Amino acid sequence: MKIINKQKKAFDQDGYLCLPDFFDEQKLAEIWIALGRVIENVNNYRAEEVYYEDKQDQDSLKQIQHLEEKDDFFNELIATGDLYTLAQSLLQEKPIPKNLQYFNKPAQIGKATPAHQDGYYFMLKPCKAVTMWLALEDVDESNGCINYVQGSHKLGLRGHSRTNTLGFSQGITNFPSAEDQKKMIKVSARPGDLLAHDAATIHSADANQSLKTRKALGFIYYASSAKTDTDLYDEYQKNLAKSLREENKI
User: Fold this and answer.
1) Angle at 192 between CA 33 and CA 113, to 5 degrees
2) Which of 99, 140, 153, 248 would be 198's cystine partner, CB 3.0–4.6 Å?
3) CA atoms of 204 and 158, how far apart (whole Å)
4) Do 102 and 108 contact (CB within 8 A), yes or no?
5) Of the ranges 93-107, 149-163, 169-183, 231-245, which one carries the lowest mean pLDDT score?
6) Could you check whether the bond before residue 176 is cis, i.e. omega within 30 degrees of 0?
7) Mean pLDDT in residue range 35-46
8) Are 234 and 228 in contact (CB under 8 A)?
9) How many Å apart are CA 153 and CA 144, to the nearest integer?
10) How far is it, in rounded angstroms, from Cα 201 to Cα 203?
11) Environment class of residue 55 by beta-carbon count within 10 Å: exposed (0-12), middle (13-18) or buried (19+)?
């Protein structure tokens, strides 16, 4: 999907973009089938790639990393077609697919996602990447809608510190400021709607206080010009996995 100049201007100005009905019902049905195959084999994946709100409760599955490595359908979904073309339009250079994630906030127990900037996790120079978020179910304030701080990507990366939220190990320190609150935008979504945001855009998500789940897919693309500080990234991931095991979270 090639976006029009007005949409690119909005993305550059606000740091995020909302695209309703990005995928139709047929494509969503294909995604659900492929997701079912992945979840069916969830016990075969590395502990670092699968998170539960309650490790002892299989129904509390909240996150799976790298779906593109687990099913050919998802590899094709992230590496070709409309999503890839959109990433290219937003980044204005060749996108490198890095991760396709499954997200869920289980009913009533799905925890809030702390405010963060994806670029802090990515450790890129320059910090040039885009994240896309595809709603698979209805999302509103009751079950965990996305909150963006409008224009925050223009101010660079802020300080982060360790959180207790599994799957989101770093959150912005001293958040929110009065300015953050003033520019916070809550975004509801319906199945098939796609959100995209800059790697430096501050965002969070509410807890799920409802009786319904909140399932979605996340797509991460790095710009080809962005290079990862591999040593720093690998060391962080190693230490994080060690901490999570010691805390009995994975």
Assistant:
1) 95
2) 153
3) 14
4) no
5) 231-245
6) yes
7) 96
8) no
9) 22
10) 6
11) middle
